[in-house]
Design goal:
Elements lengths: L8 E4 L3 H13 L3 E4 L3 E5 L7 H4 L6 E4 L2 H13 L9 E4 L2 H9 L13 H11 L6 E6 L5 H8 L4 E11 L4 H7 L5 E4 L2 H10 L8 E4 L2 H9 L5 E3 L5 H19 L1
Parallel strand pairs: 1-2, 1-8, 4-5, 4-6, 6-7, 8-9, 9-10
Antiparallel strand pairs: 3-7
Helix pairs in contact: 3-4, 5-6, 8-9
């Protein structure tokens, strides 16, 4: 099978620990990955207030909207030698998040059809009645969508931040050096968009921007990113497939 991309350069802005996996996918279809991480993820190792983890049985559901949330939550539980109560059900967003959850020996009781927090809230509330509060597992820069929706529905919840997202300011020089030479720029979270806009010397209008999902797309539109496309489903595989599709259509149109 021929490779769809012929040396086209794809900027990968996701955190360094996950960039290699996406870079391999780009290489496999003939593209040239250019890795310049915009964000860094650090898991919280200890909590100032451990009350929530000690009172998990007070919650009916725990909602986790990212793979980082799963890692951070279960790493904290292991360090504190705390078992997840059997009655506590887990709702998650996204295929990758579900895979990571399985790696910790747990299965989700609820997964929304579409991989975004807004759909999660709407679908969940149409299927389930809650008699206990919800625990939201998040990062410091997570979107307010889910807590806002629960607040609207007057559903009690607590938030537990298990990881911190910071911008990679040391990437600025390399980013500015490669901006003019990339055909595609990929965003795998709203945070990568925010960091890119903050760090980039300018926003190239000649590049094509690929977002992983609706929430990331909304942030990119809000910050004035041009030439936007969004993958469906919301996975890095789908992002690379979308780049192939756009590239092939452009080649046909130019023949």
């Amino acid at each position: 099978m021929g490779k769809s991309l012929h040396g086209e350069r794809i900027l990968i802005t996701r955190e360094e620990t996950k960039a290699a996996e996406m870079a391999e996918k780009v290489t496999n279809v003939g593209g040239i990955p250019v890795i310049v991480p915009m964000i860094e993820i650090n898991f919280i190792k200890t909590l100032e207030n451990n009350t929530i983890l000690e009172q998990l049985s007070d919650f009916g559901w725990v909602f986790i909207t990212s793979a980082n949330g799963v890692h951070g939550f279960f790493q904290l539980l292991r360090k504190q030698h705390i078992e997840l109560p059997k009655a506590l059900k887990i709702g998650i967003v996204g295929k990758k998040t579900e895979e990571v959850l399985h790696s910790y020996g747990h299965t989700a009781s609820f997964v929304p059809a579409t991989f975004d927090a807004s759909t999660m809230a709407e679908e969940f509330l149409s299927f389930y009645k809650l008699d206990k509060p919800v625990l939201l597992i998040r990062g410091n820069l997570s979107r307010p969508t889910l807590p806002e929706k629960l607040r609207e529905e007057q559903i009690p919840y607590e938030i537990l931040e298990v990881y911190e997202t910071t911008y990679c300011k040391e990437s600025k020089q390399k980013l500015d050096q490669v901006l003019s030479s990339v055909e595609y720029i990929t965003f795998t979270s709203p945070s990568t968009v925010e960091a890119f806009v903050l760090l980039a010397e300018y926003i190239p209008d000649t590049a094509t921007y690929i977002c992983i999902g609706k929430t990331t797309e909304e942030k990119a539109k809000e910050l004035g990113i041009p030439n936007l496309y969004t993958s469906s489903p919301y996975t890095t595989d789908a992002m690379v497939t979308l780049i192939e599709k756009i590239s092939n259509e452009r080649k046909i149109n130019h023949e």
